[in-house]
Write a structure and sequence with these properties.
The complex is a heterodimer of chains A (99) and B (404). By secondary structure, chain A is mainly alpha-helical. Chain A is built from 4 helices and no strands. Helices cover 46% and strands 0% of the residues of chain A. The N terminus and C terminus of chain A are likely disordered. Chain B is built from 9 helices and 20 strands. The relative contact order of chain B is 0.20. Chain B has 404 residues and is α+β, with helices and mostly antiparallel strands. In chain B, the strands form 6 sheets. In chain B, strands 1, 2, 6, 7, 8, 9 and 20 form a 7-stranded mixed sheet that branches. In chain B, strands 12-13-11-14 form a 4-stranded antiparallel sheet, covered by helices on one side. A 3-stranded antiparallel sheet of chain B has the order 3-5-4, with no helix packed on it. The chains are: A mainly alpha (99), B alpha+beta (404).
Chain lengths: 99, 404
């Protein structure tokens, strides 16, 4: 299991974050009846740049930060799970920035 | 001039209809307002043929329709600058260059027997009597033509034949119609520095700039597309918010001018981002890409339900499977509603037959369909297939069809 975040209400576990992102993607982006799962490759599922932008705006609203340009790499954005682990990294107390 | 079949509008549907009717022995005319064939595929520079391959999360590309559509796709793949189908999400699209599309259209039209193509030709009047179109008056800069037709195919995209003939048409209120887009091309972009992440960052920056009033409203509804040409990026700006039409002015006039204004502003803004520092706007498409306008009321009106449930009809004449893709006001990008994996629906011939005119067929964007159903059926691959079907039906109606 990935590292547990220090504290905080709401989404704290990577799995919870991945589930929340997946729920958002499936209700706001994917077509009815064609959900993705947390590990599914988003680009292959039809998530284009504009749709990825909507996901990043959701992250900004929920977690309080915008992913900087240099972090917008496939390793961090390939799936809901990848995004969730990036968010967890960002929220670690050792991280320079706070949410 | 007497013709068995007159086709108005030389886009994907009209080309397919005219070549097919001529191949079946009908003396055929094809009337096109631009100086080249292809319609939105060329004049709108769409750049990919959608709707020709089955939607499926896995497996190789599988054409939905044999016949004209597949022959056209196979020949287009061999043209310079074109390639093989590429996966996009749950389906495949076929990338092409507009010039190759126009050249292939020329080749097919000129090798079809009994087919006269009129370019730079505008429909100005239709003479109809007793549910029957008799003559189409067409003007070029050199002559006024009276084309007498046994059967007419309206592939104008805007149902101009039906409209001139006084037949029933429908047009959704402007604010509810799908948005048009203007394709524009940038050169000298550092394509290496424009990966998926950088593209999203650019879209975000555009959105912020629009919110801060640094860019015109709607300037961030941008798609950055790939190109095979190094340093080139093919952009598509979707034109939202143009709902006011000054009295006496066409929507298209406003949209073309507003579109150019916005793409220039967007380009200026993009130049502040590293990958675009040296970029310049080399050209736009010859016209804005129209997704929805006036439609013919046919003997059946295809519905959203028909599309999403994969409905089959006894008079089905073309197979389609593109998702319902809607570009609408108040939303960035498009929404997609997919059919089930591998599923297709039929376009019934009744959608291609005018309800009130006995010798008028229709295909392409002005077919008989609801706003949502058209969001799926309007794509080029489907237009090629339904155009062929309309051509067969028109030749048969004109009494020329020698084939089964």
């Amino acid at each position: 299991m990935p590292t547990r975040t220090a504290q905080g209400p709401g989404f704290s576990q990577p799995d919870e974050i991945a589930d929340a992102l997946t729920t958002f993607i499936n209700t706001s982006i994917m077509a009815r009846g064609h959900p993705v799962d947390p590990d599914e490759d988003l680009e292959a599922a039809g998530v284009d740049s504009m749709a990825l932008l909507k996901i990043l705006l959701f992250i900004e609203a929920e977690f309080g930060f915008w992913m900087p340009d240099e972090d917008l790499v496939e390793e961090n954005t390939a799936s809901a799970r990848a995004l969730a682990s990036y968010i967890c990294q960002r929220r670690k107390p050792s991280s320079a920035e706070t949410g | 001039m007497n013709y068995d079949v007159v086709v108005v509008g030389g886009g994907a549907a009209g080309l397919a209809a005219a070549v097919t009717a001529a191949d079946r022995g009908a003396r055929t005319a094809l009337v096109e307002r631009h100086g080249f064939l292809g319609g939105m595929a060329t004049a709108g520079m769409v750049g990919t043929i959608c709707g020709h391959y089955r939607t499926s999360a896995s497996g190789p590309p599988e054409p939905l329709n044999e016949g004209f559509a597949e022959t056209f796709a196979r020949r287009l793949m061999t043209a310079p600058g074109c390639g093989t189908p590429i996966r996009r999400g749950r389906t495949y699209v076929l990338p092409y260059t507009p010039f190759a599309f126009a050249c292939l259209a020329d080749d097919l039209a000129s090798s079809a027997p009994h087919l006269d193509v009129y370019l730079h030709a505008y429909l100005v009047r239709v003479e109809a009597r007793d549910r029957h179109i008799e003559t189409l008056c067409v003007a070029t800069s050199e002559q006024s033509l009276e084309l007498r037709a046994r059967t007419v195919v309206d592939t104008s995209g805007d149902a101009v034949v039906a409209w001139h003939a006084g037949a029933a048409t429908e047009t959704a209120p402007r604010a509810e119609q799908q948005l048009p887009s203007l394709v524009f091309v940038l050169q000298d972009v550092d394509s290496e520095a424009l990966g998926a992440g950088a593209r999203v960052a650019v879209l975000r920056a555009l959105m912020t700039a629009e919110q801060e009033g640094l860019l015109p409203k709607g300037a961030s509804n941008l798609t950055l597309g790939p190109s095979r040409q190094p340093g080139e990026v093919i952009c598509k700006l979707t034109l939202s918010g143009i709902t006011e039409e000054p009295a006496g002015r066409d929507f298209l006039t406003t949209a073309e001018q507003e579109g150019r204004k916005r793409v220039r502003a967007v380009t200026e803004f993009l130049r502040t981002r590293a990958p675009f520092a040296r970029a310049f706007l080399s050209h736009t498409a010859p016209q804005i890409g129209v997704r929805e306008s006036r439609r013919v009321i046919g003997r059946y009106r295809l519905t959203r339900e028909d599309v999403l449930t994969g409905r089959k009809f006894e008079d089905g004449v073309a197979r389609a499977g593109w998702p319902i893709e809607l570009w609408e006001n108040g939303r960035l990008g498009a929404s997609y509603e997919y059919l089930d994996d591998g599923e297709t629906y039929d376009i019934p011939l009744r959608c291609l037959q005018a309800r009130e005119v006995d010798n008028l067929f229709v295909a392409g964007r002005c077919m008989s369909a609801s706003h949502e159903a058209l969001g799926s059926a309007r794509v080029i691959g489907t237009c090629l297939a339904m155009g062929e079907a309309a051509g067969i039906a028109a030749a048969r109606h004109a009494g020329n069809d020698s084939r089964p």
